[in-house]
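Researcher: Going back to the complex we discussed earlier. I've cleaned up the inputs and rechecked each line, so this should be the final set. Can you rerun the prediction on the complete assembly and write out the structure?
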Amino acid sequence: AQRVTQPEKLLSVFKGAPVELKCNYSYSGSPELFWYVQYSRQRLQLLLRHISRESIKGFTADLNKGETSFHLKKPFAQEEDSAMYYCALEYGNKLVFGAGTILRVKS
Amino acid sequence: DTAVSQTPKYLVTQMGNDKSIKCEQNLGHDTMYWYKQDSKKFLKIMFSYNNKELIINETVPNRFSPKSPDKAHLNLHINSLELGDSAVYFCASSRTNEKLFFGSGTQLSVL
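Model: Rerun complete. Updated structure for the full complex:
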């Protein structure tokens, strides 16, 4: 069955420290993966998708098919990065979300 | 000029009542969705409509009935509300197989 696992419910880092939000997926086909972010009191929005191979707000994510992972990384965390982050897997017309990880960046 | 708007933002109601949540998008998208975010923050798809046609209907109680009067609207009607229905419900839209745009959510509390 298709599944997305985000093992950390909460990740707390200091400003300027590197960030890695973990995401593992289970899917037998060719995956299409996304990271969504929800800032406090704002709507859920797309942060990045793996096929674009882009860097948004300093975040990058590389698809590792061998490890079935799509971890989200940023070299230097900023306080405004504090938010809930969801990893998502798309197959067919469905989008399956992980449980989310709260990122708290402390000053 | 809100892209995906859903109303109401908050809905507090008694068990057994019937309620509706409305969703509208002005992006010209042809696909709309309803997601449920439970207390553990897990997002699950409930329904998806493409050009007013139901294409995804996950295992959801019959008390939940989506209605799409046109491509820009997808409403969610819930009959005989139960305590377990308390959650945040997100509407979303997209062009077929493209990224989703989400509404800001409706927090439903059933007392």
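Model: Worth noting: Chain B touches chain A through 24 residues (CB under 8 Å).
Researcher: Good, that matches what I expected from the previous run.
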